[in-house]
Amino acid sequence: MNINENTSEGVIEEDFWKEEIESSPCKPQSPVRTEKDYFRSLTVNRSPQKKFLFKSVTLKGSETIEELQKSAVFLRERNIIQVDELSKEVRANTRKELKDALAEINAEFEKEIHEIRLEHDKMKDTISKRNRELTLFGKFLDDQEFLITQNRLAKILKKEIPAPSQASIAEKKSLATDLRVLKVQIESLKEAVVDYTNETYASEAKLKELNIKIAGIKAVHRQEFKVLEEQLLLKLQNSKKDRDTIKLAFETYKKSGWNELEDQEKKLEKQRIIIVSLQNELKTAKGILYHPKLKLRVHSTLQGYVEEYEQDDEIEKSLLSQSALKYAGAATGRSKTIGRKKFTRSNDLSWSTNFQSMVSDNGSAFSKVYGRKTAYADNFKTKLSPLKA
Description:
Elements: H1 2-18, H2 35-42, H3 65-78, H4 80-160, H5 166-289, H6 295-330, H7 351-359, H8 364-369
Helix pairs in contact: 5-7
Keywords: Coiled coil
Coiled coil: 91-126, 172-199
């Protein structure tokens, strides 16, 4: 029983102190209040507290402990609402008292702050008055010191300055005349400056007119420039069209005749390689032919071959000239080069191998090659110089 009551009271106290106290409505920089406001804030309206009636239970004299405990629990449950209302009322009253106390404290503080502000303003006024008096007194002292020093210097200068001499008087007169001349010169210079300023204003007006004319000329030039740009764009478009047509014609030409030209060039390269190899073989053959042992044998066998070769060479020249004329007529618009016919040997034996075989085995191979004519592809034969006896 006691434990439950203590716990309920502890919970009520915690709920009360957990709630925050509302801040006072007065601000630190509130308007100045009168004495009536201060005394009005001190008055507190206190209303009489309401009386709470707790519900009771009549007990007989012969109850057991369990029955008493049950009756206590029953009373606690029935009186929870009254306890809550009482705690709320107590909490509200304490809040009101705290608010009133805070209002009184704030009113006292505001009154003190108001008095301090008034004293501060009075002190400011007095300090400013004293500062003005000090500045005036300092100026007065400066003026007095200046007058004293001026009087002292005047006395000293009267003693030091001697009487003016004739030379100084003449110098002053000359300086006065020079000053008059300079004044005249200054006046003339002023007039010249006025004339110069008038001329500058006139030149500025002319310059403005010229700028306007230049702007008009620039506008005309811009229009002409635009027209020229349009013409140039048209020319560019036409030139692009011409270029595209030329490209198309060139592409068609490449597709039609370029492959043939490339084939002819490849053939020429191969023929050059064959010519170089044949020249090398010719050199070896000449070296073999000039051998003293074979010179007599080869001369008799090759004499008829040379005559036959000369006849075949004339036929080949005529054929080559005809093919070159056909090729030149087909490849127009390109540098005309006479195409050479590709010639290859049908047999794999070269001149060097044949003549080396003739030399080897004490002339036994020569008897095999003797009287044998080599076959050539496309009726091509290497040109040999006539043999010397």
